[in-house]
Amino acid sequence: MGQMSWEAWSETLLKKRQAVAIAIISGSWHNPPKEAATRMPIQVLLVALPLVAWGLERLVESARPRLMLAGSVSSVAQYLLSQPPCAPDVVVLDLDGEGGVESLADLHSQTKAKILVVTGSTDVTLHDDAVLAGARGVVDKREPASASILLKAIEKVHDGELWIDRNATSRIFLELAHQKAVRDMDPEQQKIARLTRREQQTIASLACDPSAPGKLVAEKLHISEHTLRNHLTSIYSKLGLTNRVDLYAYAHKHGLVTDN
């Protein structure tokens, strides 16, 4: 090779290297990392009643090869009794199906998979309770683009992120702080903290007039006698009491009586 041809070749090689360097710096050089090319699909298990599961199955299948359907069961109880052939990475649970939040807590205690719930409920308390019970995110079925949102949420949750909005985040932090405060209370204060506002009103009314018949107490609270009996059953259970005499003494001892 002559001197001139060698110089020409060197100059051409230098220009090519410069072009590659510029492309990499500018972001126009596309060379996917090896881990992206070999990334395993996310195994997704569905927990939903058959009609809902039918649509979810097709949605997950449409996202192949990123997602892979690991199976579908109609309830958490069925999942816990069965042994899926492939351990799921993400479980999508329809919160409007069987079991609700209680079944979600059971599921969370029995699986290492990340849990994502879908629901059509507008009750934000239900959404928050789902996260507090172990869900990594909540997808609203009523969203116009709920299908594409769910697919994105599955990937984000799988990658270790939470799929909740900012308002939910602040509410959940406040609830966690409240739960910690309750845990720091003495045992009796913990019991009292479990009472609903309506149950507290019932106790106050009964403690002010312990001899009042149930019908009069119910009228004062604007509820039926049947509802009053239900409140009392719940109150006795939460406070460890058995009758109205015990409740009267307990209310006065722990300051549950309010001035009318």
Textual characterization of the structure:
- This protein is α/β, with parallel strands linked by helices and 260 residues long.
- It has two domains: 38-173, Response regulator (Rossmann fold); 187-253, Arc Repressor Mutant, subunit A, CATH 1.10.10.
- The chain is 58% helix and 11% strand.
- The protein is built from 13 helices and five strands.
- A five-stranded parallel sheet has the order 2-1-3-4-5, sandwiched between helices.
- Strand 4, helix 6 (124-132) and strand 5 (137-140) form a beta-alpha-beta unit.
- Helix 6 crosses helix 8 (166-183), helix 10 (197-208) packs across helix 12 and helix 11 (214-221) packs across helix 12.
- The protein is elongated.
- The mean pLDDT is 82.
